[in-house]
From TrEMBL:
Keyword Cytoplasm (UniProt): no
SUPFAM superfamilies: P-loop containing nucleoside triphosphate hydrolases (SSF52540), RNI-like (SSF52047)
Keywords: ATP-binding, Leucine-rich repeat, Nucleotide-binding, Repeat
SMART domains the record matches: LRR_RI
UniProt xrefs under InterPro entries: Leu-rich_rpt (IPR001611), LRR_dom_sf (IPR032675), NACHT_NTPase (IPR007111), NLRP_HD2 (IPR041267), NLRP_innate_immun_reg (IPR050637), NOD1/2_WH (IPR041075), P-loop_NTPase (IPR027417)
PROSITE patterns: NACHT
Protein's UniProt name: NACHT, LRR and PYD domains-containing protein 5-like isoform X3
Domain NACHT: 106-236
A Pfam family that the UniProt record links to this protein: WHD_NOD2
Keyword Transmembrane helix recorded: no
Family: Belongs to the NLRP family.
Positions of the UniProt region annotated as Disordered: 1-61
Length: 1025
């Protein structure tokens, strides 16, 4: 991880931004928007053949090398500003020393944001090598840049080297004789990336073979060509992910750019007033995303210039958070404002120039193009002189070498102009050059590019431009009104995210919140978020917290909020991040205010019923503020979950909340270490007449024997508590006696008890079964993951057959049930009309046990509705019995047969039951059942004529394209009412994925989900909910 702090000096005016940038560590590469002089080769010279190389003598070789080094020094000396004694240079120098005893990387990747200093660092290595300052063990070093050539041209590595040589003849044989002493620098991998998508990617191994240049460079990367040579690559963070699969044992170095301290110095350089300094640092550095962008020297200077313009225009009141859009809008619109009093707005010609420039920028963003040439300007009806006159600033940097090229001052400025294109698009009819350019991709296409991170900047600016004040300023500048269509399209984008909440990635929601926050327009944000009833977000940065607070305040339909707050609430961490901000001695720290604002949502949304803070890291003051907001009389939250949360202290505030807020009905504290004092306070609160809590989950809370005593006494003294989960806690025989005494009492009103994974002994089970004979209220009993012997199951089934038994749901998953137990269970099913749910997942039921169970279910007195048989060692031989149950038992609604080796024959047998008119089955689980396309014909026919089935799990089966296309036809059938389908879409070819998308477009209510690998049991069985 490297930083590039340098001394800042120079004038602050926009005309001198280039001088300022040169004095800060900057990146001069093509992806960074800085053209380099003398970097373009003469195309005619490129075509000249390499002269015959007979192997020069040592003196001649030395002379050739010195000539080459002098050429490199002349070429790069003006553009490179990094000092050879900088620490990052020393790190890179060490990486390229051959013959080291330790394992060394032969490939080094410099990655970071565009403009952060990667190219300058890479070129510095070449320059310092040429000046004999670094890398003295390297014999020859060569720089390959995207600006110098087209990657699709044909060439050999020998030709590429010859192009870099300051003459027509390069000593190629001499150069290639020691490949372990060669260094190749590939600047701007991102521009090479698109070429690497070609079909023919056969590698070359001979440096004289003529192949497309991208193949030659790809062969170097893959170490097929000169495997002992050293390679240095520069790429953006976006390009890094695609580069990783191509490299052999690389070393990755993050180039960070300006440190936080340096960014503060730059931003505050011309501000004298202390109050104003604090305002600016809070609004700029306090905006995490904006502060991160200021790591790039060019962006930092643009931000400084915008702040200066705000000051000059009298905008003394700095907003709580500045956004990059508002700052760039201030800067660009100010530069565009006519200076002549007689001119109130841009002329038609000036508007045409602005629109042409923005369209060119947008085309470039889509195609990952940041370098433009004279013919590009001509295509868009642009002239360099008109652009300079319009902006009165060097928005385009010019390289006046052999083939003149242009780049934006920074790629973010290109993104801004690209976003502006879509706002101005409606005015394009008046520009004759627009009809000459190719059709630019629409906003609808932009919406569908989730994985193209190079478009993120343009998207963010596009949302930011929707601010009504910004739009008003732009309309005045243009002298005409702008169409509201863009705003409507963006609102629809976000609205669709809200409608598809269950299928939406958490990152997408947070990204949408950041985009909306960029607008700082409450009316626009509120209209966009009307469809959001459930929101899930992960808060990693304090800016995520501020952005989420802002957007959640405008989610007026919000019913469920799931948020994972990571270490952002640590006071020490935030002080360390912003030490320049004077933390108020009497007021509240900023992070406290952010958290208060976030928690205030609980009292402003009357529809909000469910709050999930699972896996969050909450300290005492965070818990205190949260509970204070939960006690707000306006708070209507009924369910609060802290599952897996890290709560160091502060639970005492939660117990007080249970008394103050009578709306609270459900509390989940799973996997939180509970002390005996916590249980004591909890029991006191639960006994209070104002406490209305009905559900208490204490899963894996490390409960002690004394805790069970207190909980048992609680069950005898509260009327509100109906659901108690003790899963994952060890329940000893003594503790079970206390619980059983409570359960056998008529004063106990508990309805649901979960004793999953409680390490119950046979004695404990016997004690529990005996207590159940006297219980008349328990409707849900879960004993999963406890070993139950035949006698305990017999005793339990004996109780279940009693007329007085109230149990409706019995969960016995993974209880090591033996073959003899299924006879008792079948007998119980045939005599129990109240049991609606039986879970036997991960027990060795086998086909023989399944036949017994089916006989019991078929009895008229059995009203079973849900049967879970996942991984029960079933085969196709039991499917005929199951099909008979499916066809005849109208009570049966859900059947989960996942992870059983049913095979195609088994499912074909089940389809006979699905086709019968008497079936009422709504949910069917066939995950990992060994199915192939051989069963798809029958399954498709069954689905096409079955209108009852609404949920089907087909994950982890081996369907080919033809089989999946048959299933897609069944999904689309008018008679089919399926709306939840378990399928891993990425498993199939594009034709199948397109059909699945068509299914979801045709039936917009349908959810096709692939999150089958989740470790959370509730998530894994999402389709049964």
């Amino acid at each position: 991880m490297l930083t590039g702090d340098m001394q800042l000096a120079g004038e602050d005016s926009m005309s001198n931004l280039e001088e300022d940038r040169e004095q800060i560590q900057s990146d001069q590469g093509p992806d960074e928007g800085q053209a380099t002089e003398d970097s373009m080769s003469n195309p005619e010279e490129d075509r000249e053949p390499i002269q015959s190389d007979q192997g020069p003598d040592e003196g001649q070789a030395t002379g050739n090398l010195q000539v080459y080094k002098a050429h490199i020094t002349k070429k790069l000396n003006k553009s490179v500003k990094v000092r050879s004694d900088d620490p990052e240079m020393r790190v890179l120098s060490e990486a390229f020393k051959p013959y080291q005893k330790t394992v060394q990387p032969h490939t080094v990747v410099l990655h970071g944001k565009p403009g952060v200093g990667k190219s300058a660092l890479a070129r510095s290595i070449i320059l310092d090598w040429a000046q004999n300052k670094l890398c003295r063990d390297i014999s020859y070093a060569f720089l390959f840049s995207s600006k110098d050539r087209k990657w699709t041209e044909k060439s050999s590595l020998a030709h590429l080297i010859s192009r870099e040589w300051p003459g027509s003849q390069a000593p190629v044989t001499e150069i290639m004789s020691k490949p372990e002493r060669l260094l190749f620098v590939m600047d701007d991998f991102d521009s090479l990336e698109s070429a690497l998508l070609q079909e023919d990617m056969r590698l070359c191994k001979d440096w004289e073979d003529e192949r497309p240049i991208y193949i030659v460079l790809y062969s170097l990367l893959k170490k097929a060509l000169l495997p002992k040579s050293f390679i240095l690559i520069t790429t953006t963070d976006a390009g890094l992910q695609k580069l990783k699969s191509m490299l052999v044992s690389p070393l990755y170095i993050l180039v960070e750019g300006l440190s936080l301290t340096m960014r503060k110095q730059v931003v505050l350089k011309n501000i004298i007033d202390d109050h104003r300094k604090n305002q600016v640092i809070c609004s700029v550095i306090g905006n995490h995303w904006l502060a991160e962008q200021c790591q790039v020297p060019s962006v930092c200077l643009l931000v400084c210039e915008a702040l200066k313009i705000q000051e000059e225009l009298g905008e003394r009141r700095t907003p709580v958070f500045q956004t990059l859009t508002s700052l760039y809008a201030t800067l660009v619109f100010h530069q565009l404002t006519p200076r002549e009093p007689s001119q109130s707005c841009l002329s038609q010609e000036e508007r045409g120039t602005l629109m042409g420039l923005c369209r060119m920028a947008a085309e470039g963003v889509w195609s990952k193009k940041s370098v433009f040439y004279d013919d590009d300007l001509q295509t868009y009806g642009l002239k360099e002189s008109e652009i300079s006159a319009l902006f009165r600033m060097n928005i385009l940097q010019v390289d006046r070498s052999a083939k003149r090229c242009y780049v934006f001052f920074h790629v973010s400025l290109q993104d801004f102009c690209a976003a502006l294109h879509y706002v101005l698009e409606g005015l394009g009819k008046s520009n004759q050059y627009f009809c000459l350019t190719k059709n630019l991709r629409s906003l609808t296409e932009l919406k569908q590019t989730h994985f193209n991170t190079h478009l993120d900047g343009m998207k963010r600016f596009l949302f930011g431009l929707m601010n009504k004040d910004t739009m008003r300023t732009l309309e005045v500048l243009l002298g005409c009104s702008l169409s509201p269509d863009v705003k409507k399209v963006l609102q629809h984008w976000v609205s669709v995210l809200g409608q598809q909440a269950n299928a939406t990635n958490l990152t997408d929601v947070l990204d949408a919140f950041h985009y909306l926050f960029e607008s700082q327009d409450e009316e626009f944000v509120c209209s966009s978020l009307t469809s959001f009833q459930g929101v899930g977000i992960v808060v990693n940065q304090r800016m995520d917290l501020a952005v989420s607070s802002y957007c959640l305040q405008h989610c007026q339909s919000l019913e469920t909020l799931w948020v994972d707050v990571r270490g952002v609430l640590s006071m020490e961490m935030n002080i360390e991040l912003c030490p320049v901000i004077h933390q108020p001695t009497h007021g509240k720290p900023h992070i406290t205010e952010f958290w208060e604002d976030f928690c205030s949502v609980l009292g402003t949304h009357p529809k909000l019923k469910h709050l999930d803070l699972g896996s969050s890291i909450l300290n005492e003051w965070a818990m205190k503020i949260l509970c204070m907001k939960l006690r707000n009389p306006a708070c209507k939250v009924q369910s609060v979950t802290f599952k897996n949360a890290e709560i160091t202290s502060g639970l005492q505030y939660l117990w007080m909340t249970l008394i103050s807020n009578q709306n609270l009905r459900h509390l989940h504290l799973g996997n939180i270490l509970m002390k005996e004092d916590d249980i004591k306070l909890a029991c006191i609160a639960l006994r209070h007449p104002k406490c209305s809590l009905e559900t208490l989950r204490l899963d894996s809370c490390a409960l002690t024997a004394d805790c069970y005593v207190m909980l048992s006494k609680l069950l005898l003294s509260t009327t509100s508590l109906k659901f108690l989960s003790l899963a994952g806690n060890k329940v000893t025989e003594e503790s079970m006696r206390w619980l059983s005494d409570a359960l056998s009492s008529s004063r106990c009103g508990l309805q649901k008890l979960i004793l999953d994974s409680c390490d119950l002994t046979p004695v404990s089970c016997h004690i529990l079964a005996s207590a159940l004979f006297s219980n008349r209220t328990l409707t849900h009993l879960c004993l999963s993951n406890n070993s139950l012997r035949t006698e305990e199951v017999r005793r339990l089934c004996q109780f279940m057959r009693l007329q007085e038994c109230a149990v409706q749901q019995l969960i016995l998953n993974q209880c090591n049930l033996t073959r003899d137990t299924y006879g008792f269970l079948a007998l119980m099913l045939s005599h129990n009309g109240k049991l609606t749910h039986l879970g036997l997942t991960m027990n060795p039921v086998e086909d023989s046990g399944m036949k017994l169970l089916c006989d019991g279910i078929k009895e008229p007195t059995c009203h079973l509705q849900e049967l879970d048989l996942v991984d029960c060692q079933l085969t196709e031989d039991c499917c005929a019995d199951l099909a008979s149950v499916i066809a005849t038992k109208q009570h049966l609604k859900s059947l989960d047969l996942g992870s059983n080796d049913l095979g195609d024959r088994g499912v074909i047998a089940l389809c006979k039951g699905l086709k019968e008119s008497g079936t009422s089955l709504e949910r069917l689980g066939l995950e990992a059942c060994g199915l192939t396309s051989d069963c798809c014909e029958e399954l498709s026919l069954a689905l096409s004529c079955n209108s009852c089935l609404v949920s089907l799990n087909l994950l982890r089966n081996d369907f080919c394209t033809s089989g999946m296309l048959k299933l897609c036809s069944a999904f689309l059938h008018p008679s089919s009412n399926l709306w939840k389908i378990g399928l891993w879409k990425q498993q199939y070819y594009a034709e199948v994925r397109r059909q699945l998308e068509k299914v979801q477009l045709t039936k917009s209510h349908m959810l096709i989900d692939d999150d089958w690998y989740s470790f959370n049991e509730d998530d894994r069985n999402w389709w049964r909910n």
